[in-house]
Amino acid sequence: MSLKRKILFSMIGSAIIASLICGIASIFVSSRSTREMAKEQLDSICRIHQMEVDSKLAQIENSVNMLADNTVAQIEDFERFKTDEAYVGQCTEKIREFAKIAGENTEGVLTYYIRYNPDFTPATSGLFASKTGGASGFEYIEPTDFSGYDKDDLEHVGWYYIPVNNGKPTWMEPYQNENINVYMISYVVPLFIDGEAVGIVGMDIDFTTIQEKVNSISVYTDGYAFLASASNEILAHPSEDYGKNIAESSQELADFMSAHAESQDGQTADYTYQDKGKVAAVSVLRNGMRLAVTVPDSEFNSTSGHLFKMIIVAFLFALLFSVCSGLYSSSTIARPIKNLTKIIVDTANLDLKPNPQSKKLVKLKDETGDMARAVRQMRKKFREMVALMEKAGSDIGGNVTSLHQNMSEISGICENNSATTQELAAAMEEASSAVETVSESARTVEDNMGHIGILSREGAEKSAEVKNRADNLKQTTLTAAKRTQEIYGQVKEKTSDAIRQAQAVEQINELTHNIRDISSQINLLSLNASIEAARAGDAGHGFAVVASEIGTLAGQTQETVQSIQTIIPEVNGAVENMKECLDNMMEFLEQKVLSDYNEFMQVGDTYAHDASDYEQGMTQINDAVMSMVDAINNISVSINGINDMVKESAGGVQDIAEKTSTVVQKVDSASTFVDTSKESAENLNQIVGGFNLE
Question: How far is Cα 232 from Cα 224, in angstroms, rounded to an integer?
Fold first, then answer.
């Protein structure tokens, strides 16, 4: 079977198997998914209708709650309300208008009422408004007389005591009003003030409006809705009687609704009704009733059947597409492989000529293109190898011929080298004796230079001693001059300080003038104070004594200042004499002592410099002598090395002569290998000739 058919059959078989697997899985998964989606949709429908019914109930609850709040707000004095019948009537009149508005604006209301606690109000207190059949509005009638019934008579007065006992707003069970022959449902809110029951506020609603709403619900084609009480009694159903228990028709549905009695979320259940499978979604209304929507199984399964038909059509279409695609793909895959196979067969037959299909194949971007590029690369390398083999064969042939000629020439040259090396060995022996004579002369020069080196070292050592003494003299002079310079600086600094301090005497003179001026002013103030004290009489006597003392103090201050001024000229004279003496001493130190030390330092420095030059010269002579000694030693060593080398060379030349003879023998043996290589080159050319490259 050809590759094309194999690819075609494998693709069609794979497509059929894949389509069957996908189809079966799709039918299985889709059936379950479709049923689950249908249940979710049914649950959503049930929730929507639940919200519609709950909105009606919520409107009633809001109206009653507002009426209850308004009633409690009107009873401002609860203690008076419990004892004053007239006050009860006043409160009722205030509530009447608001109650009327609430009743008229609430859909489906048949009656609204406010009743007070019969324990402390009249038995018929409160108000009761009713909308009779055909009447356009509400009319007030006398409320029920509590005195005619016992508290335990819930059949007649349960609408009051049940909510009060519950302590919270309560939806009453639906009942039929025999007076107007209408099914009604009541919402009652108990009233409390400070934890004590005040009464109730309630409304009776026409239950037929809720029944009609439920009966109008349709789901899909044959689906419908029904309403049941918390005890699973039917309250609205398109075909079942009112009050019938659901368990009589379907125990499965009754058990399901009882199991989810407290759940506010929508639920779905499969059950059997009248020997037919059905699916129901149930939601709990805000008054505790159960709203259910139900659909036959046949409507759920119809969606799955339609899906099954679509999958069959898709399978046939996929099969047809797979056949066409397989034919195209197999042709597309097989054609390049066929062309590539021909190229590989040509390569196996050593036909390396370029193939026009190769250019198309290498442009493919799939595995066939990869193989084509690999084969093209292989054929390229084969051509390169053949070219190299051809060139190598040609080169080997030429090289073998040249090698044969060169070996003949080498054989002749080696014979000449053998004679030359023997002559060279004799010349080497004569050179060895001459080298020994030169070596002896070098040893004599080396001994003389050693004696000169000893003398130069002794001169260098003596010059070093002279330099050390000159350095010591220079250092001593430098230390003395430095010490004299320090003493000169200290004396100069202290002299400047003494002169600065002597100038303070002039400041004392200025201060004495200021003190004299201040004492004159104090004396003047003392005189003025004495005058003012005299004017004051006896009252200024104490102040006059103080002023007199201040004047006396000012006079003593002036006398002291005059004494200081007498001493100041003498101090100034002593300071001038001290300054003159210090200036003379500083001039002597600077011009005589320091100058002599500087000249002495210059002489010592010159002495040290000359000693250093002498030492340096002797050191250079010693270094030159030692360098010459080293050079003569090196020459001696080199001459000895030359002598040894000449001796070794003589032996080496003799060895070369012997090896040259051996080379001649090897060249004769290599001629045989050259002949063998020539035969191999001819064989290689024959192999290359088997390839077709054009």
Answer: 17
